[in-house]
Amino acid sequence: MWSSSSVSQQDSITSGFRAIRRDPAIFLLELVWRWSFGALAFLLLFLAGLTIFGSTDLARFLGAERSRDPLLIVTAALRLIRVLDHRPLFFAAAIVTTLLWIILGALGRTLGLRRILNDSHLIRFRNILALQAWRAFFLWIGVAGTTASLMFSAWMAIRGDKPDHVIFYVLMVPLLTTIGIFCSVVNWYLSLAIVCSQRKDTSGVAIQRAMVLAGSHPAAVLGISAFFVILRVLVFLVAFVVAVFSTGLLVALPRLVFGCLTVITLTYCAWADFLYVCRVHAYVTLKSSVSQPPAEVSVVPMLEAPVTPTPNGHH
Predict the structure, then answer these.
(1) DSSP secondary structure code for residue 66 in this structure
(2) What does the pLDDT read at residue 157?
(3) Which single residue of 139, 206, 234, 262 has CA 20 to 30 Å from 294?
(4) Residue 105 confidence (pLDDT) above 90
(5) Secondary structure (3-state) at 62
(6) From CA 119, how far away is CA 198, in angstroms rounded?
(7) For residue 131, how many other CB atoms are within 10 A of its CB?
């Protein structure tokens, strides 16, 4: 396997921005599927949330939130989750939301990659659907692990006569950090596997391709990821500062504050989607550059110096 690529990390990043500028439909496809899913998910969860509106557990949760005590908030939230387990409508809404994310995400990613590669035969919807389903599965694993960690930490903290916040934080922080790192790494590899997937690949083969790409070119792959993560954090910080500043100016007009925060949030989401598409294209460019062997190096033969015979007959 060759160790260098014909396209550098910087070229891969800049090619992503140039590609979206040349073909904005790639970005529009990402917006359509993400925002369509967001609208449907909000509607489903809102309707399901109406089933717990006015319940005593919801009132306790809101009261705990006003106390600013993390342990009380977690305890009240866990009680609220226990109530939701007995509401089949809320559980059904969560399942339908997950299925919508899998289907719409796979469809949007398939169409986007086909447009990036300019070839509708290289990417199969079924392959992307399977990888998207694996992402959803590990997302639920993360949610379950987070809930179990919070329950365990809260239970250990309230066993005594008084709640022990030290035990709560000592247990909660490392558990949530471990779960967050694990789920983030798995999701990152599955996202890269979607880019590396080819027509006849299974999910396992696509994941292996992603691992090979990341293992053989770690600096380039991690450099691309780090660049877009830093850029996204900067965009978030700008949006946060603008939101705080706007809220301070419009504090006497609550309706206008709500509208302003909505516009800022949607603008940030649009920029985040734009950066994600650019990152995907950068991965595609890097993968294409390392999937071809380097060009043959022509060797020019060197002329040998003439050999002068010695007087004794030896050369």
Answers:
(1) H
(2) 80
(3) 206
(4) yes
(5) helix
(6) 12
(7) 28
* Beta carbons within 8 Å of 156's beta carbon, 6+ residues apart: 164, 167, 168, 171
* pLDDT at res. 63: 59
Give per-residue burial for 27-40: e unless 16+ CB within 10 Å, then b. Answer: bebbbebbeebeee
Distance CA 230, CA 276 (A): 12
Between CA 265 and CA 243 the distance in angstroms is: 9
What integer pLDDT is reported at residue 81 of this predicted model?
67
> What pLDDT shows up at residue 201?
80
Query: Per residue in 232-244, pLDDT tens?
Result: 999 999 999 988 8
- Give the contacts of 157 (CB within 8 A, at least 6 positions apart): 71, 163, 164, 165, 167, 168, 171
Q: Which of 245, 209, 278, 286 is nearest to 5 (CA)?
A: 286
What's the number of CA atoms in the CB half-sphere (13 Å) around residue 116? 31
Predicted local distance difference test score (pLDDT) of residue 294: 40
